[in-house]
């Protein structure tokens, strides 16, 4: 809809109000003929506009209640009731203007996204930066993003960047991204200029997918809106019948005019689209992009949830576990080749590779001639060599499988890890082993989804059954389906649709068939937006599973408000029609009464714009949460040494055990114990106030005491060791304590991280 066309209703409102007021002045100055002419003209203008609206609706085969307004104005003018006609025209014009304002207000957040589209990019060519149109950029191109500019296409950062991602995520905080991390098109550079490597064409990037989805959402009419049209047609017939009966009963056509006035316009066609669009806009504000009103309504009625594991239940940010290589290759070279090529891909494993390489100080080269096979791997040129990375089947198709690859594949199956095999010029040179972790918010999000009425939680994964069932038991899902092919996932969703409305959550690339088959397909994370613009109905632009909970709550609230507005508005309109039919509500008073009904209905529908915080507890500032999590990152080397020492003890010379244990005790006393003491004394009191209750941190403090007990016990046992070291029984006892300490510290840190995440997410909910 053009800007000029959107203003027509407001122009009509001004015209109708001006003619009505001018007619009143004419009556005051004793010129009733001129007053009648002005009132007639004002009513006729509104009648002409209604004629156009009715004609457009008939061409689209859409029913409506504009016919009632047109009949009321025409009947008033035919009876010489020009004042009544002018008042009716003003009420109609104000109702249309109010609806237009409400729709614009409701879709404000979605419209804001469209205004932020990137326009051009700065590309490195022959050692210099050149501004080019976006459609010229290709994967592998090196780009420069200056301060205050928008990221032009999806890619990987070549150096640290400070980004304002509020347009996509709804969170206004400045986010610091490390070299190697994925950056999405459309976010703002809020810091110093930075370089990046493009991983997608402009048309395939995140923001382009978002633009397509928003445009589709603004064009689509929701099922409830279409249902409202059908009810509106029925309402027109009922209104005309009641008007005819009142005319016959009273013997005067003015009684029919009074009935038609209060029947126009119908709250049914005002409340539903305003509430649904308001819900969609509220979701957009929270970083949840919904393709259309139909998806919002389906989401509100969902009772079955399917989800992929990798990238959905897990963080999607794998960490490097180890690098294995064949003869003639080094670990650094294998990582360098893999990470250099991975810069041109937005896949979560590619992002993890580049981050791991940069953390280890590995200098990367720019890739060229990159070809990505979704879900399989990448091929491209690195420093004049052809490099292939990906799964074993993908890499072995163009290289000779290495002798060591069978053992690696077997171990990967045991441990449930991912692996990126690397081939260079037809030779398999090595493999990078990766591991993923559950998202911090996943257990809590699934618990709350159950509380919101999701009856079945089904995990679909291609992993082995034992690995999948372990994860499923950890999360408390209803059902686990392992070793699933894309066809298996498709069949499972189609079968479940017979039992209720089905949601499918996936990464938007490998799960596209399942996303398309579900009643509501949801792509997880901004990186999936472009790929899922056709398959998914909803994109969670914030890479957190708990935003699905927000989407479900907003959808149900918006649908509930729409139904509430329709029922209340229609009830008031029917009462007003009956009062008018019995002669107690003249046309002018009826027009004013109907306008009050419309205002009340639209105001109620706009309540769908307000979103509630996810929990009642207080909020932890993001910077505090990040600081607390960063302290755990700094502790990671010490924690890793606990497990490593426990593994090494049986094979260690007895004389060396005492020294190794003493060094371990020194590290625990110097780093781990002071950290836990600071948490107990300075952090937990503040968290307790935010959580609420008498002593909400008691269990966490109890874990501190257990950590202190084991550390003291280790120190005492180490001090009592004889010079020759412990015997076999003593080694076993030290192992038991170290393994126990490792388990409790890791669990404790994960619990704290989840708590920090939940409390800081509450802060985000109020933004």
Automatic annotation (TrEMBL):
Keywords: ATP-binding, Cell membrane, Membrane, Metal-binding, Nucleotide-binding, Translocase, Transmembrane, Transmembrane helix
Superkingdom to which the source organism belongs: Bacteria
Domain P-type ATPase A: from-to ranges: 117-215
GO molecular function: ATP binding; ATP hydrolysis activity; cadmium ion transmembrane transporter activity; metal ion binding; P-type zinc transporter activity
Residues spanning the membrane: 38-55, 67-93, 231-250, 256-278, 561-585
Top EC class for this record: translocase
EC number assigned by the record: 7.2.2.12
Gene Ontology CC annotation, any one: plasma membrane
Compartment list: Cell membrane; Membrane
InterPro entries the UniProt entry points to: ATPase_P-typ_cyto_dom_N, ATPase_P-typ_P_site, ATPase_P-typ_TM_dom_sf, ATPase_P-typ_transduc_dom_A_sf, ATPase_P-type_domA, Cation_Transport_ATPase_IB, HAD-like_sf, HAD_sf
Reaction equation(s) it catalyzes: Zn(2+)(in) + ATP + H2O = Zn(2+)(out) + ADP + phosphate + H(+)
Major subcellular site: membrane
Limits of the Hemerythrin-like domain: 626-756
Recorded family membership: Belongs to the cation transport ATPase (P-type) (TC 3.A.3) family. Type IB subfamily.
Protein name: P-type Zn(2+) transporter
Origin organism lineage: Bacteria, Pseudomonadati, Pseudomonadota, Betaproteobacteria, Burkholderiales
């Amino acid at each position: 809809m053009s800007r000029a066309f959107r203003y027509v209703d407001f122009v009509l409102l001004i015209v109708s109000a001006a003619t009505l007021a001018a007619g009143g002045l004419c009556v005051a100055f004793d010129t009733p003929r001129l007053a009648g002419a002005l009132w007639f003209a004002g009513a006729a203008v509104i009648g002409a506009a209604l004629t156009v609206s009715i004609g457009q609706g008939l061409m689209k085969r859409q029913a409506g209640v504009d016919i009632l307004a047109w009949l009321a104005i025409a009947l008033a003018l035919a009876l010489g009731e020009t004042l009544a006609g002018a008042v009716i025209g003003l009420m109609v014009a104000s109702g249309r203007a109010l609806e237009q304002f409400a729709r614009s207000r409701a879709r404000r957040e979605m419209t804001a996204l469209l205004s932020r589209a990137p326009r051009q990019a700065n590309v490195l060519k022959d050692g210099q930066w050149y501004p080019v149109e976006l459609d010229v950029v290709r994967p592998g191109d090196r780009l420069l993003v200056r301060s205050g500019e928008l990221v032009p296409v999806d890619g990987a950062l070549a150096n640290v960047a400070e980004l304002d991602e509020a347009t996509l995520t709804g969170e206004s905080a400045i986010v610091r991204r490390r070299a190697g991390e994925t950056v999405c098109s459309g976010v703002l550079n809020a810091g110093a200029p930075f370089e990046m490597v493009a991983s997608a064409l402009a048309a395939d990037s995140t923001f382009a997918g978002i633009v397509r989805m928003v445009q589709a959402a603004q064009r689509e009419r929701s099922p409830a809106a279409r249902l409202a049209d059908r009810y509106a047609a029925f309402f027109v017939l009922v209104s005309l019948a009641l008007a005819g009966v009142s005319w016959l009963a009273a013997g005067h056509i003015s009684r029919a005019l009074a009935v038609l006035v209060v029947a126009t316009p119908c709250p049914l066609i005002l409340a539903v689209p305003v509430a649904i669009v308001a819900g969609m806009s509220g979701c957009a504000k929270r970083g949840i992009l919904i393709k259309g009103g139909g998806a919002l309504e389906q989401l509100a009625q969902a009772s079955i949830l399917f989800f992929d594991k990798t990238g959905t239940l897990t963080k999607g940010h794998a960490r490097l576990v180890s690098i294995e290589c064949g003869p003639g290759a080094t670990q650094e070279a294998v990582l360098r080749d893999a990470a250099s090529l991975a810069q041109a891909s937005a896949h979560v494993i590619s992002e993890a590779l580049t981050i791991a390489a940069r953390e280890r100080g590995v200098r990367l080269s720019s890739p060229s001639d990159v070809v990505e096979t979704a879900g399989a791997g990448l091929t491209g040129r690195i420093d004049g060599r052809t490099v292939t990375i990906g799964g074993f089947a993908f890499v072995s198709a163009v290289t000779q499988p290495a002798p060591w690859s069978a053992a690696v594949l077997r171990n990967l199956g045991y441990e449930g890890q991912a692996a990126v095999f690397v081939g260079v010029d037809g030779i398999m040179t090595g493999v990078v082993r990766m591991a993923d972790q559950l998202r911090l918010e996943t257990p809590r999000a699934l618990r709350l989804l159950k509380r919101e009425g999701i009856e079945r939680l089904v995990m679909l994964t291609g992993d082995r059954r034992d690995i999948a069932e372990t994860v499923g038991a950890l999360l408390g899902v209803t059902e686990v389906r392992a070793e699933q092919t894309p066809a298996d996932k498709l069949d499972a969703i189609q079968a479940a649709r017979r039992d209720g409305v089905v949601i499918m959550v996936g990464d938007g690339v490998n799960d596209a068939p399942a996303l398309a088959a579900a009643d509501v397909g949801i792509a997880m994370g901004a990186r999936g937006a472009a790929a899922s613009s056709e398959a998914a109905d909803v994109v969670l632009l914030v890479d957190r599973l708990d935003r699905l909970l927000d989407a479900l709550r907003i959808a149900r609230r918006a649908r509930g408000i729409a139904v509430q507005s329709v029922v209340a508005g229609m009830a008031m309109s029917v009462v007003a029609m009956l009062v008018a039919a019995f002669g107690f509500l003249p046309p002018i008073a009826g027009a004013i009464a109907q306008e009050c009904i419309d205002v009340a209905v639209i105001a109620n529908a706009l309540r769908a714009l307000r979103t509630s915080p996810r929990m009642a507890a207080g909020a932890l500032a993001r910077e505090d949460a990040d600081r607390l999590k960063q302290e755990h990152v700094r502790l990671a080397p010490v924690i890793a040494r606990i497990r490593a020492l426990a593994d090494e003890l049986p094979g260690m010379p007895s004389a060396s055990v005492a020294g190794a244990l003493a060094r371990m005790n020194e590290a625990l006393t110097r780093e781990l114990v002071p950290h836990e003491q600071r948490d107990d004394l300075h952090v937990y009191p503040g968290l307790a106030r935010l959580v609420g209750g008498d002593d909400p941190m008691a269990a966490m403090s109890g874990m501190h005491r257990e950590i202190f007990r084991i550390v003291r016990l280790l120190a005492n046992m180490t001090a009592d060791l004889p010079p020759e070291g412990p015997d076999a029984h003593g080694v076993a006892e030290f192992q038991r304590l170290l393994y126990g300490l490792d388990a409790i510290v890791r669990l404790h840190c994960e619990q704290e991280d989840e708590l920090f995440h939940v409390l800081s997410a509450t802060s985000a909910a109020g933004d």
